[in-house]
């Protein structure tokens, strides 16, 4: 862990150039707009260590996983998010010498990610080997207002010489994926052209034929005057550049404005791509850099209006939470229900850009509270659209009915590459069902059940029905051979969490059916018919609910993570010598599997989801048993523990866990930020504040709050959208204020007292419990 970033409430700032931290910074300073995004690579050539990364949402490559030990039921491929055309590139030559920060002396370096406005800027002075010095300033963004557009203003000023600066904006599609077998390249060129003022490049992916056209245009000004200079066009394989030679006097500022438009065959017909890119580009160019920048600032202002969290008295915590919110808003914007959220967003290639249960378990709550309900709804519809594929997936694995959603997916098909861990995590089906409950409970939009939800719930329930089996001598249903959320156990019997979430899904499905029968009888009849749902099925579901087996230890009063868990040698993590940690780097897989150590919340994940079903004592006993043997080696772990610790009144522990999640990437806590940021766990950080310190739960149509101040901040406030209202909740040591920023009244509970916060009204509850 190395803290080299400057603390600032609205920005991430780096003030020295250090090649050692370059790849970490490339991840942290990434930009995205839900449609495309990329790492914070330099615009000019850089020959030091770097992962050049530009990604288009939904564009991937199905890499083969067929290996010698392939078995029935293994996925056909592992999906890889594809690194696509580098649109930011600008080659700079100074009197014939390339500007490359790896080959010159750099001073006054500053890089800033301005989270308030959604821009990345950089400035530095570079002294070349021959003593020539230039000052460079750049600012760029991917537009939130015009998804297909990215824009850069890049200036070079000769400080101690006159001569020629050559500026060459280019598009380079000849890029490599970091995640590639044998350095294989994934793109073929379709067409390209270059002309004075710009060019375009169309590439298509191997196998799936995704087409991506990127078009660029540029303008150059010298000391404020637009330059009308000839450009030499260079066309190479998957590469287009315009080279412009600019004669300069010492002190002249050469400014290049580069605009790029990227469009894909996901949104346009093949014959329309070039025209679509050119037309988006043309209109961006006509608007001009200043207007695009204003649009960007305005778009981010709107995002912050809905999702900001303010922490007073702790600038480091303030910066961290804004960083998490910023990255989440950059990653998913919710307009396109074919898209989802990869665990690294647009910041790297690990996890292949695919969708995991992270979306339902962690991200849905964030978008539910900080954006219009349609955004979270689109995340749910994504899974609805994959229902047929999930049914096929269950058939492939030998199930006669039901749906098993994939653990890792791009298009609904399973595409993980770690059979023994990932496949058996069938608990993901439960998270997908839970997200439907969460959405309906939070928004009150019960119409979702009839429109989409019930079909998904029923098919998941059918899967559980077939996956459990009845053991007569126990008079119980059991579930064998699964992996729970704790991936440091494989192929266990009766994982408590999986059994519990399965039985809960059956319960909720029956509840949804009863609701539809009573309130939407026509739709109910249609759905029963469409699903071919039989009474004997729903009777069986009830029987499973009644007789599900749950491993318990009565003496300790805890749920057992799985059968036989207590046969393990239980030694708290704090008794392990530090050199053993992290286990995933220091221990063999064999040793990990037979140890008691837990990667991430498992039983506790269930207690978080089904929070209102268990009393505090039960939660406490389980927390006290499991947390000390949890190593939190998944970034998804600390947040759930922080939330439960809040509920249990373990304030210090809650804060400690919060710190582990909130600055995970900014402080490179897990030593892996160079691979990309932990984007899905950022939603967990948000949850730690809002569900943890804020105690937010929704019950019976009321937004319940049980806030307390974790003790290190003078106050904090967060915003939540709730059923048409937007509420700003401020917590100080003395009181809790809920201000309604909209005209729509909201029914809330603060601790046990009910209030209605009128349109534009405010409610204050005196006295915040020092400890809960
Ligand atoms: C976690 C999983 C998670 C995946 C992607 C793994 O390390 O154990 O729960 O789905 O990362 O974030």
UniProtKB/TrEMBL annotation:
InterPro entries for this protein: 6-hairpin_glycosidase_sf (IPR008928), 6hp_glycosidase-like_sf (IPR012341), Gal_mutarotase_sf_dom (IPR011013), GH65_N (IPR037018), Glyco_hydro_65_C (IPR005194), Glyco_hydro_65_M (IPR005195), Glyco_hydro_65_N (IPR005196), Malt_Pase/Glycosyl_Hdrlase (IPR017045)
Enzyme class: transferase
GO molecular function, a single term: maltose phosphorylase activity
UniProt EC number: 2.4.1.8
Keywords tagged on the record: Glycosyltransferase, Transferase
Pfam families: Glyco_hydro_65C, Glyco_hydro_65m, Glyco_hydro_65N
Domain Glycoside hydrolase family 65 C-terminal: 696-757
UniProt domain Glycoside hydrolase family 65 central catalytic: residue ranges: 322-687
Lineage: superkingdom: Bacteria
Residue ranges constituting the Glycoside hydrolase family 65 N-terminal domain according to the UniProt record: 14-266
Similarity comment text for this entry: Belongs to the glycosyl hydrolase 65 family.
Name of the molecule in the record: Maltose phosphorylase
Organism field: Paenibacillus forsythiae
Lineage of source species: Bacteria, Bacillati, Bacillota, Bacilli, Bacillales
């Amino acid at each position: 862990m190395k803290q080299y970033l400057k603390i600032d409430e609205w920005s991430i700032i780096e003030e020295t150039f250090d090649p050692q931290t370059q790849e970490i910074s490339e991840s942290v300073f990434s930009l995205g707009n839900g449609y495309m995004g990329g790492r914070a690579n330099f615009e000019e050539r850089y020959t030091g260590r770097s992962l050049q990364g530009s990604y288009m949402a939904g564009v991937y490559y199905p890499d083969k996983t067929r290996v010698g030990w392939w078995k029935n039921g293994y996925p056909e491929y592992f999906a890889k998010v594809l690194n696509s055309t580098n649109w930011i590139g600008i080659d700079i030559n100074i009197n014939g010498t390339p500007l490359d920060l790896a080959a010159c002396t750099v001073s006054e370096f500053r890089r800033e990610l301005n989270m308030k406005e959604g821009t990345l800027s950089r400035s530095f002075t570079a002294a070349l080997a021959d003593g020539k010095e230039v000052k460079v300033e750049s600012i760029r963004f991917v537009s939130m207002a015009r998804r297909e557009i990215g824009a850069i203003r890049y200036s070079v000023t000769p400080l101690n010489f006159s001569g020629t600066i050559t500026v060459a904006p280019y598009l380079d599609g000849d890029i490599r994926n970091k995640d590639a077998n044998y350095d294989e390249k994934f793109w073929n060129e379709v067409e390209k052209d270059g002309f004075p003022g710009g060019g375009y490049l169309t590439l298509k992916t191997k196998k799936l034929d995704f087409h991506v056209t990127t078009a660029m245009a540029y303008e150059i000004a010298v000391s404020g005057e637009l330059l009308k200079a000839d450009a030499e066009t260079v066309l190479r394989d998957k590469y287009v550049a315009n080279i412009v030679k600019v004669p300069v006097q010492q002190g002249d500022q050469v400014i290049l404005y580069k605009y790029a438009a990227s469009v894909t065959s996901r949104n346009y017909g093949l014959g329309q791509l070039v025209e679509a890119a050119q037309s988006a580009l043309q209109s961006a160019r006509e608007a001009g850099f200043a207007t695009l920048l204003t649009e960007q600032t305005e778009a981010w202002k709107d995002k912050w209006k809905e999702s900001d969290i303010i922490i007073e008295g702790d600038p480091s915590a303030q910066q961290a939470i804004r960083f998490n919110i910023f990255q989440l808003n950059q990653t998913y914007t919710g307009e396109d229900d074919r898209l989802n959220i990869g665990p690294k967003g647009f910041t790297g290639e690990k996890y292949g850009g695919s969708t995991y249960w992270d979306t339902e378990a962690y991200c849905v709550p964030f978008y539910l509270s900080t954006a219009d309900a349609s955004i979270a709804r689109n995340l749910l519809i994504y899974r609805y659209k994959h229902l047929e594929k999930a049914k096929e997936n269950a058939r492939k694995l030998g199930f006669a009915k039901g749906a098993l959603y994939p653990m890792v997916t791009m298009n609904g098909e399973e595409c993980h590459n770690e059979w023994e861990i990932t496949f058996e995590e069938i608990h993901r089906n439960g998270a997908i069902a839970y997200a439907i409950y969460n959405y309906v409970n939070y928004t009150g939009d019960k119409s979702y059940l009839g429109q989409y939800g019930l079909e998904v719930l029923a098919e998941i329930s059918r899967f559980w029905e077939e996956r459990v089996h009845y053991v007569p001598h126990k008079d119980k249903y059991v579930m064998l051979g699964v992996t729970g959320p704790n991936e440091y156990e494989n192929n266990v019997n009766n994982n408590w969490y999986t059994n519990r979430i399965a039985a809960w899904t059956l319960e909720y499905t029956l509840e949804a059916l009863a609701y539809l029968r009573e309130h939407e009888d026509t739709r109910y009849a249609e759905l029963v018919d469409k699903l071919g749902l039989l009474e004997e099925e729903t009777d069986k579901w009830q029987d499973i609910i009644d007789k599900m087996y749950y491993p318990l230890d009565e003496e300790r009063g805890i749920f057992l993570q799985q059968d036989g868990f207590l046969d393990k040698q239980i030694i708290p993590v704090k008794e392990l010598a530090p050199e053993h940690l992290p286990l995933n780097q220091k221990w063999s897989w064999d040793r990990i599997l037979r140890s008691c150590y837990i990667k991430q919340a498992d039983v506790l994940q269930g207690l978080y989801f089904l929070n209102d079903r268990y009393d505090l004592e039960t939660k406490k006993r389980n927390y006290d048993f499991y947390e000390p043997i949890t190593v939190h080696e998944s970034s998804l772990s600390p947040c759930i523990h922080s939330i439960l610790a809040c509920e249990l009144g373990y304030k210090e522990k809650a804060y400690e866990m919060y710190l582990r999640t909130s600055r995970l990437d900014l402080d490179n806590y897990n030593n892996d930020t160079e691979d990309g940021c932990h984007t899905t766990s950022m939603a967990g950080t948000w949850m730690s504040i809002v569900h943890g310190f804020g105690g937010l739960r929704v019950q019976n149509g009321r937004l319940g709050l049980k806030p307390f101040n974790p003790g290190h901040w003078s106050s904090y406030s967060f915003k939540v959208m709730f059923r048409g209202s937007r509420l700003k909740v401020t917590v100080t040591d003395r009181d809790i204020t809920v201000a309604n920023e909209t005209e729509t009244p909201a029914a809330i509970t603060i601790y046990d007292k009910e209030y209605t916060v009128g349109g534009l009204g405010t409610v204050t509850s005196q006295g915040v419990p020092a400890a809960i």
